[in-house]
Amino acid sequence: MARSRARIACGRQRHSLQLRDPRAPLRTCAQVAPTVRQSVLDGQLHNDPGRFGRLYRLLWRLTHEPALRHDPLDVDRVQAQQMAQAVRRDMHKMTAFVRFRTVADDGEGLLHVAWFEPEHHIVEAVAPFFVRRFTQMRWAILTPERSVGWEKKRLQFGPGADKQAAPPSDAGEALWLTYYRHIFNPARLKLAMMQKEMPRRYWPHLPEAQLIGSLCADALERSGRMIDAPATTPHRRVVPLAVRTAMPLQLSSDPREALSQLKEGADRCRECPIGEHATQAVFGEGPVNAALMIVGEQPGDQEDLRGRPFVGPAGQLFDRAMAELGWPRERLWITNAVKHFKYELLGKRRIHKTPGQREAAVCLHWLESEIAQVKPSAFIALGATAARALLGRPVEVVRERGQWHRGPRGERVLVTLHPSALLRADPAQQVRAYADWLDDLAHASEFARRRSS
Q1: I need a surface site. Which of 52, 164, 286, 440 has the fewest CB within 10 A?
Q2: Using CB atoms within 10 A of its CB, is residue 208 exposed (0-12), middle (13-18) or buried (19+)?
Q3: Which domain holds residue 26?
Q4: pLDDT tens figures, 55-67
């Protein structure tokens, strides 16, 4: 046993003296556990002068002592993990506490420079983070040991710099201090936690650090004033609908001109929040005095981008149904109960979101104005939102589909599923569901084939 230990010690000394490349320890043991390998990678950036010898010793032992892989309390493994954790913590602090200041334009655009004093050799490891975050900005980070710059094309590393080379405070910094002072909440102040997350050694790099002392000193008094202050009355933010509506005051007597006015008005409408985020309003289209009006729920992603109703996947399915039924699309008036696209973002995709009852109710006057100009003989309500808008009551589409109903003014309304419901159906049931949907639509064939008067 003593001989074995002597041989290991001799090996450690020999290899640590020959070690020159910081990555050489990894090549000596390529099959170590991933967690240990990551600890070695991060540990190489530690400021301990003897880090390479320590890490090589750990890898050598892992190669020759298989049982070491199952001993997480081994001194060498613990030391490697501690070094790696210290490096990762320093990297995190650098990404959080670097503050850029703008220097004069040198003809190639503004240059933003920051000064930072990392505890370990992390500049090259952290630089890609700043490239991803500030890709379109020219910047440089100066540190005592190593400096890095980004000219929007590639990273350039250079020797360390002196703190005097860093630029002084600028107007942007004053604005940041004003913002920081106003977002400070004295009631939530926890000094111990703040110093744990923002250690004092980083304060010289942070412009806001000059405010911490005074803000903390006044925190107790400010908290007391907040408690003693009377409740505030919130200002009314919802503007009355009569002010926000974009409905034209007087429509033209010509139905075509009136529909054009309604379309322009709907595009400017902000009576509900949907219109503010949509690309444009999607108004109905078709011949004036069409015998049959098709009413869907709301435009989808493609309709919102192109400004036409039923041109997306659901619209393509509807076109297929019209072709099989022998309905000319150019004889139908096709529209939606809600004129703007309501969605929620999922990554870069805009996912359809069903409009609420209030949003549909607010948008109802646009549909009613449309109906007043087109004067159709019958309607097809595709889905529950359209059926409720036309019939003025909640509708159970599955139970009432394929039947003619009477609206509040005696109009004939055929209720059926929205084509998007078929696209979401179980693939095994889609053929049958499509056939049943065609049977529903066929009840309106008399009106669909009728020419406009």
Answers
A1: 164
A2: middle
A3: 2-94
A4: 888 888 888 888 8
Name beta bridge partners: 148: 141, 157
**335 near 297, Cβ under 8 Å?**
no
- Three-class SS state of 373: helix
Instruction: Classify burial at 271, counting beta carbons within 10 Å of its beta carbon; exposed 0-12, middle 13-18, buried 19 or more.
Output: buried
Residue 233 lies inside a defined structural domain of this protein: no
Of 40, 28, 33, 24, which is closest to residue 79 (Cα–Cα)? 40
Q: Which residue has the tokens 């400096």?
A: 147
Beta strand ranges found along 38-144 (DSSP E): 101-103, 111-115, 138-142
Ranges under pLDDT 70 in the chain: 1-33, 105-106, 170-172, 233-249, 452-453
CA distance linking residue 35 with residue 58, whole number of Å? 13
Residue 315 neighbours by CB distance under 10 Å: 21
pLDDT at 62: 84
Please name the helix (run of DSSP H) or strand (run of DSSP E) that holds residue 335, with its range, or none.
Answer: strand 332-336
The whole-angstrom separation of Cα 184 and Cα 208 is: 11
Residue type, 31: Q
Report d(CA 317, CA 310) in Å as an integer: 9
Task: For residues 397 and 271, give the distance between their C-alpha atoms in angstroms, rounded to a whole number.
Answer: 28
* Cα–Cα–Cα angle for 344, 350, 356, rounded to 5 degrees: 40
The set of residues, in sequence order, having a beta carbon less than 8 Å from that of 258 and lying 6+ positions away, is: 251, 252, 373
Last residue of a domain, one of 47, 71, 94: 94
DSSP code of residue 79: H
Q: Are residues 7 and 76 in the same domain?
A: yes
What is the distance between the terminal CA atoms of the chain, rounded to a whole angstrom?
A: 106
Instruction: Write down the pLDDT at residue 6.
Output: 36
Q: Are residues 336 and 400 in the same domain?
A: yes
Structure-block tokens of residue 234: 């919130």
Hey, what are 369's tokens?
Answer: 């104005």
The pair of three-digit structure tokens given for residue 165, joined into one six-digit string: 């080379």
For the chain, percent of residues with pLDDT exceeding 90: 48
Q: What is the pTM of this model?
A: 0.49
Domains held by the chain: number: 4
Q: CA 272, CA 366: separation in Å to the nearest integer?
A: 13
CA 189, 191, 197, 198 torsion-angle sign: positive
Instruction: Report pLDDT for 179.
Output: 78
What's residue 320's pLDDT? 95
- Cβ(390)–Cβ(407) below 8 Å: yes
User: Which residue, chain included where needed, has tokens 């529209």?
Assistant: 335
2-38 pLDDT, tens digit each: 333 333 333 333 333 333 444 444 444 445 667 778 8
Give the pLDDT of residue 20: 42
Same domain, 176 and 156: no
